[in-house]
Write a structure and sequence with these properties.
Layout (H helix, E strand, L loop, with lengths): L6 H19 L6 H8 L3 H7 L3 H20 L10 H15 L4 H17 L6 H22 L4 H20 L7 H13 L2
Helix pairs in contact: 1-2, 1-4, 1-6, 2-3, 4-6, 5-7, 5-9, 6-8, 7-8
Keywords: DNA-binding, Repressor, Transcription, Transcription regulation
Protein name: TetR family transcriptional regulator C-terminal domain-containing protein
InterPro entries: BetI_C, Homeodomain-like_sf, HTH-type_TetR-like_transc_reg, HTH_TetR, Tet_transcr_reg_TetR-rel_C_sf
């Protein structure tokens, strides 16, 4: 009797293995050979689900984006007109996309890897652009509830703050702590 393989579960298993490799060694470390070893599968099984390295890395970064999206949906928008609630909501949204715990730290590493790789690899550009646009939209919606005059401009500014703080959190460039990140974000949101 043939063995039934849950294709979605197998694909997720491969993506999780690749995710771990990207975190520890960068996107170049997620070779099919290493992903197969990490997942306990053979290379043919990995190739069955992913045509090439780029499609595997796109699946990894898409999974990270989906995780962030699921966390963001847990935060309902505040009732209109309550600026304090809107600011708390904005801070909650920002918390979900910042490297403030081990899981989000790993996600930020993956995002930084793929963002940097998108400069030279056209295969990564669409997913990076989509994630940037999604982040700006989420921020713009949250900022609009605060009552900021130009929510689009403020969303760009907040996205830049998110990127800079994330880079500093996951690299020796700044090595900022979660407490510092939260303090910087709270200080900025307080000025809105």
């Amino acid at each position: 009797m043939p063995v039934h393989v849950d294709a979605d579960a197998r694909r997720r298993h491969i993506v999780e293995a690749a995710l771990r490799l990207v975190v520890t060694g960068g996107s170049a470390a997620a070779t099919f050979r290493k992903v197969a070893a990490e997942s306990g599968l053979n290379i043919g099984s990995v190739r069955h689900y992913f045509a090439d390295h780029e499609s595997l890395i796109v699946a990894v970064v898409t999974e990270v984006g989906d995780r962030m999206g699921r966390r963001l949906t847990r935060h309902a928008a505040p009732t209109a007109g309550d600026r304090d609630a809107a600011k708390r909501h904005l801070l909650a949204v920002l918390d979900e996309v910042m490297p403030l715990d081990a899981e989000r730290h790993r996600e930020a590493i993956i995002l930084m890897e793929v963002i940097a790789a998108s400069r030279l690899s056209p295969a990564f550009e669409p997913v990076v652009r989509r994630m940037a646009a999604d982040l700006r939209q989420v921020l713009m919606d949250a900022v609009a509830a605060v009552g900021v005059g130009d929510p689009g401009l403020e969303a760009v500014r907040l996205a830049a703050l998110v990127s800079g703080l994330s880079l500093d959190a996951v690299t020796p460039h700044g090595a900022v702590s979660p407490e510092t990140i939260r303090a910087v974000l709270a200080s900025h949101v307080g000025t809105l």
